[in-house]
Write a structure and sequence with these properties.
The structure holds two protein chains of two kinds.
Chain A lengths: L2 H17 L3 E7 L15 H11 L3 E6 L2 H4 L1 H12 L6 E7 L13 H7 L2 E6 L1 H4 L5 H14 L3 E4 L7 H10 L5 E4 L7 H10 L3 E4 L8 H9 L4 E2 L10 H8 L5 H16 L3
Parallel strand pairs in A: 1-2, 2-3, 3-4, 4-5, 5-6, 6-7, 7-8
Chain B lengths: L11 H7 L14 E8 L12 H10 L2 E8 H5 L4 H10 L4 E7 L4 H9 L8 E6 L1 H4 L9 H10 L2 E5 L9 H10 L4 E5 L5 H10 L3 E4 L9 H9 L4 E2 L9 H9 L5 H16 L4
Parallel strand pairs in B: 1-2, 2-3, 3-4, 4-5, 5-6, 6-7, 7-8
The chains are: A alpha/beta, B alpha/beta.
């Protein structure tokens, strides 16, 4: 290899990195009052945006970090209000509940409300909010959600879902577009790979998937379209997973998908 | 337009960010990073695609790691012997070093391995004690031979530590660190709690706080640097548990000075062990 060639490669990488966009597929706003990370939580959109800038993250999908405790209706409203002024950079996630109690907009109105409030995805906290996610409780809603390809976050940890819960949800709603989040720091291949293999619309965000070369392996087996950069803020920071992603042993196009392209595609329903 | 932590020219973060893993030689890493907390071998609860030496070394080299010091999972929990670990290291002498795994439930192995310690050179660096998993408190008599050996030779000993754990939490670790002032204590995971790390740091001088599993956590590195000082923090990953780039990224993106980043990634270890080991 000549030094000239090496310089050209360095210049090409620098150029590519300068154009690479990071769109965080999973972070939260507001303080989780039950979290030990209380004091370091990102409590305002302004603080979140400043930290995004410091790390070079252009946009983010945000859920309300205290949804478990304050409930879906309150959290959904507060989140929509909080991100209103920042719709160019922050896209919200609303939490759903059983349709029969009419606590949230019904299936005929929820998608319009989401559009009006810059909400790009849904999630659910059945453990915190004490209900069972199945066809009886959210069947009509999930049918419409799946048809429109609205992404639904299935969070693990934080007192919420378990892998069993995710498996049950996917068995009940196999065509839903889903994003498994907060995988847990112990390598989760034994649980995640069967889901990726069997449910083509299931995705995973990578904020807590730290297995060496693991993202590369999964992208090669299941496709880079299935994996998303996520920070997991404020429990996790923005930067650590970014360095992993720019060093994946994948083609640049695949890295671009994981860094930002996939979440943009999933939010395009709106 | 804000310049991100990755894009500031002349910084360590920028050098790592722009470095091409696929065309740069390993020795051209911006810093010679020392990973002081690794493992090797399969695990009962986790699928590791790359947990044997050849694949691990590939990952280490492409991420710019100069040395990985590890204890083998099966030497800690099974019947794999430390002499076998030495042989693995000898196949990758430019990267791999190891800690002698100490299993308090195998006193015969401890005695035999300490006798063999000199034959493990130049690959052996110290001892590893995993009290939380073996469920034997670090102050227990079953560790005494190993600790006295380390004290006599002024060796580093890496401990898995966790705040609140009765086997290797703050109280027993404080007792032990005071009991053996000539041992260099590597406090694995820094108790996963910067407040506990600070309490131990304030009471001892022979302690270094290791970072496995912490660099991804928001604010953790900043708190540790503020409370115990960057001169007492060392880098580790639990490799093959955690990706080297992920952990390095957590250090580089932290709101700490470049000098502190250098201390953590290489400077402190070079001050303790030198560059030629």
């Amino acid at each position: 290899m000549t030094s000239e060639t090496l310089e050209q490669k360095r210049a090409a990488r620098k150029e590519w990195l300068s154009k690479l966009e990071f769109f965080d597929a999973f972070c939260s706003l507001y303080i989780d009052n039950n979290s030990e990370e209380f004091e370091s939580a990102i409590a305002s959109p302004e603080k979140l945006l400043a930290e995004m800038d410091r790390n070079g993250v252009s946009r983010a999908v945000v859920y309300h970090g205290n949804t478990g405790m304050v409930g879906a209706a309150y959290a959904n409203n507060e989140l929509a209000e909080g991100i209103k002024a920042y719709s160019d950079r922050l896209t919200g996630v609303w939490s759903i509940l059983p349709e029969q109690c009419h606590e949230l907009p019904d299936v005929e109105h929820i998608f319009v409300a989401m559009k009006e409030n810059n909400i790009g995805a849904l999630t659910l906290y059945p453990t915190w909010h004490r209900w069972i996610p199945n066809k009886l409780t959210i069947g009509r809603l999930m049918e419409a959600v799946a048809a429109r390809k609205v992404p639904v976050y299935l969070p693990l940890g934080n007192g919420e879902g378990s892998w069993k819960w995710v498996y049950d949800f996917m068995k009940e709603f196999p065509t839903a577009t889903t994003i498994v989040a907060t995988l847990g720091l112990w390598g989760s291949d034994r649980n995640l790979r069967p889901l990726l293999e069997n449910y083509p619309n299931l995705h995973a965000e990578m904020s807590q998937y730290w297995v060496p070369e693991g993202i590369t392996d999964m992208a090669k087996i299941y496709g880079a379209d299935r994996l998303l950069y996520g920070s997991g803020m404020p429990k996790m920071g923005f930067g650590s997973t970014m360095l992993s992603i720019v060093n994946l042993q994948l083609p640049e196009g695949d890295i671009e998908k994981i860094a930002s392209g996939n979440i943009k595609r999933l939010l395009a329903w709106n | 337009m804000v310049t991100s932590v990755w894009n500031k020219p002349g910084t360590i973060a920028n050098a790592f960010w722009e470095r091409g893993w696929d065309f740069e030689a390993p020795e051209t890493a911006p810093l010679p990073v020392y990973d002081m907390h690794g493992h090797m071998g399969s695990h009962n609860a986790i699928y590791f695609a790359r947990c044997d030496a050849p694949e691990m070394v590939k990952h280490l080299k492409r991420s710019g790691i100069r040395r990985l010091v590890f204890s083998h999972h099966h030497a800690l929990w099974g019947e794999f012997r430390n002499a076998q670990v030495r042989d693995i290291c000898s196949q990758f002498p430019d990267v791999l070093r190891f800690y002698v795994a100490i299993n308090p439930h195998r006193p015969q192995y401890i005695e035999e391995d300490l006798k063999l310690y000199d034959s493990f050179k130049p690959y052996v660096v110290g001892l590893k004690i995993l009290a939380g998993y073996h469920k034997v408190v670090v102050t227990d008599k079953r560790y005494e031979k190993a600790m006295e050996f380390a004290a006599e030779r002024k060796l580093p000993v890496l401990f898995h530590t966790w705040n609140g754990c009765p086997f290797n939490g703050l109280d027993p670790m404080t007792q032990l660190c005071k009991r053996y002032p000539t041992v260099t204590f590597f406090i694995g995971h820094s108790f996963s709690n910067w407040q506990a790390a600070k309490k131990l740091a304030d009471q001892t001088e022979n302690t270094y706080f290791e970072l496995t599993s912490l660099p991804g956590q928001y604010g953790m590195i900043e708190h540790l640097v503020q409370e115990v000082g960057s001169k007492r923090i060392i880098f580790g990953t639990d490799m093959p548990w955690f990706d080297e780039f992920q952990h390095i990224g957590g250090i580089l993106s932290a709101e700490i000075s470049d000098e502190a980043k250098k201390d953590i990634l290489c400077g402190n270890i070079e001050r303790l062990l030198g560059k030629d080991w």
